[in-house]
Amino acid sequence: MSEKISNPINEDGEISYQNILVAVDESKEATKAFKVALDLAKKFDASLLIVSYLNTATLEAFKTFTPSIHNIRAELANRVNVLKKMAQSEGVKDVKSITGEDSPGSAIIEKVIPKYHCDLIVCGATGTSKLDRYLIGIGSQSSYIARLAPCSVFIVR
Asked: How many domains does the structure of the chain reveal?
């Protein structure tokens, strides 16, 4: 990915993204967001970064309820690997992935964007991970990203 956030408007005045980040979880809207990001990456011959974080706000509480957290971590990694292979098979030349445990919105803004310099973030309007299904009170990460991102954000419904 490029060294700095690029201007998505080229010399001809047309939009041209180079580094696209897609935030994914298990929600239907994240699946739609991935399809949009994949189409845009192909259209603009852009790099695609697939990002998925287990929300640590729920993770600590979840650890006290069940030992299956290891299975959830493995499912997360597997899901992201499947998406990565799908993007590669669709012709996206530069596909990277990141998984981890953190607050998804703040990790994307504070850790991922400074390192990978994306010029577009694609995410679902709402998300639902397995952890979120077990616990109440999970807020929308997409609104956090939209407010604080230093680049364009495409929110998919």
From this structure: 1
